[in-house]
Design brief:
mainly alpha; 2 domains; two-stranded antiparallel ribbon; 21 helices
């Protein structure tokens, strides 16, 4: 059924644009006002829905489903992208339970031992591990696991002077790794869903950039922070002895649970990748798969499920739900259409300048506020301007790259950089807002330049 376009008086649209701007500003200064994201977006959701109903902007009434049945569903419920919520909840439960098996720590320590303690090899190992974990888990989990391991490893190796460089490279690579798969970050899920980009299509198009950007970021980190290999045989043997003292099996309480977790992890990624080609599952979607695997793993701790439920990031979940409600009201108030006219001006600069301009505008916007509202707004706008079947359009990829990589420009640009800065501050590395921007700018600038060239000249080659 086609969405009907309804006329809205300009002053009403401007009122809701003001509300959207106020919400984005509040999110940008979340720490200053001492309020959680969900509380901010939840408050604005209530105000927006109430005001939109008062001004007769929302389609209040029953919903007709595919069977022709009339269902009474509140309008704020239908505005929520439930598959996104299902993926977040299911994947979070799966990762939390699987981490109990020691699987992720085992992988990390295996790589550490393979490096023999050599700083350059260690930087490469941790960098690659960060990208892989960010791609298949989530950015925050990846930064927590790899960042914690980095602190322990470098202190044991008496290389604490390299800690700042390692953490900065890892924090930067979480957002690069977030580009590898459709489920790596929430902006990917939102934009990929709107553009109807399949899991494998997303991977095939983004993987070349992720590989090149990872190599360049690690090389740049090595040069800027003077990470060098050992100069003498004595240094190499001492480091190897330190690394050999690490026991990757310490966190494994049950071999059976460990192997089950490994098989389940591979199966989950496999089903995510092939969902569109599997009968029935393609109808139920990625959210169903994530929930099913999360509940399956919970059976290993069937008497402790309340612990995992309470461990869910409810602030994040409520944030997404209420954000979708706000965006839905903005759509009906024609705010997205108004913003779309501004985006049109950027895009109208031409095939080259328009695509590049959209990427950099997305990056700058996501560096000072949450990239999830940005992705939600721009996906709605592009869905109207560019038919979803044109998923090969470079405009979609401009938003995907910009929304992810912009998080590396500032310490508040993404949740993973916030975690990285937190680890730095805990280890008294003297990282202020300004210093982080100064240190991270070379990485972010190079990544964004590479992304611009990639979107302009490589993405079109895929057809």
């Amino acid at each position: 059924m086609e969405e009907q376009i309804h006329e809205v008086e300009t002053w009403k649209t401007l009122v809701f644009l003001g509300l959207l701007s106020a919400m984005v500003l509040a999110l940008a200064f979340e720490e200053k006002i001492h309020a959680k994201k969900s509380l901010i977006t939840g408050t604005f959701a209530i105000i927006c829905v109430l005001l939109a109903d008062f001004l007769h902007l929302l389609p209040i009434g029953d919903v007709i489903n595919v069977f022709g049945e009339s269902l009474h569903i509140p309008v704020y419920i239908t505005g929520i992208e439930w598959e996104v919520i299902a993926i977040i909840v299911g994947a979070s439960l799966f990762v939390d339970v699987t981490s109990r098996s020691g699987l992720f720590t085992w992988i990390a320590l295996k790589l550490t031992k393979a490096s023999k303690g050599d700083p350059v090899k260690l930087l490469i190992s941790y960098g690659v591990l960060t990208v892989v974990f960010s791609a298949f888990l989530n950015n925050v989990t990846a930064m927590i696991i790899v960042g914690s391991l980095t602190v322990v490893s470098l202190k044991k190796l008496d290389r604490s002077s390299l800690l700042l460089g390692f953490l900065l490279v890892e924090g930067s690579l979480t957002n690069v790794g977030g580009l590898l798969t459709l489920i790596s970050s929430v902006p990917n899920i939102i934009i990929g869903s709107a553009a109807e980009i399949s899991f494998m299509t997303f991977f095939m198009k983004s993987a070349p950039y992720v590989v090149v950007s990872t190599v360049v970021t690690i090389w740049l980190g090595k040069r800027l922070f003077k990470v060098n290999s050992f100069a003498t045989d004595q240094e190499r043997s001492d480091a190897a002895a330190h690394v050999d003292s690490f026991d990757e099996n310490d966190g494994i309480k049950s071999k059976g649970f460990f192997y089950l977790s490994a098989v389940s992890f591979v199966a989950l990624i496999g089903l995510f990748a092939t969902c569109q080609n599997v009968p029935y599952l393609r109808d139920l979607g990625l959210g169903f798969i994530a929930i099913a695997f999360g509940l399956f793993m919970l059976w290993m701790f069937k008497h402790e499920v309340d612990e995992f439920y309470s461990g869910l990031d409810w602030d994040l979940i409520w944030f997404f739900m209420t954000l979708f409600v706000v965006i839905n009201t903005m759509e009906h108030a024609q705010v997205l259409a108004l913003i779309g006219t501004g985006i049109e001006r950027v895009i109208s600069l031409g095939d080259t300048a328009g695509v590049a301009g959209l990427l950099w505008c997305s990056a700058i916007a996501s560096s000072v506020t949450d990239n999830i509202p940005l992705a939600a707004v721009l996906s709605k706008i592009l869905a109207v301007r560019t038919p979803p079947t044109l998923s090969e359009s470079s405009l979609w990829w401009s938003v995907i790259f910009g929304a992810n990589l912009g998080g590396n420009l500032t310490p508040i640009g993404s949740a993973s950089t916030v975690v990285a800065v937190t680890v730095m501050q805990k280890n008294k590395l003297g990282v202020t807002f300004a210093r982080f921007v100064k240190l991270s700018f070379p990485f972010a600038a190079v990544q964004l330049v590479l992304a611009t060239l990639f979107v302009l000249f490589v993405i079109p080659l895929f057809g």
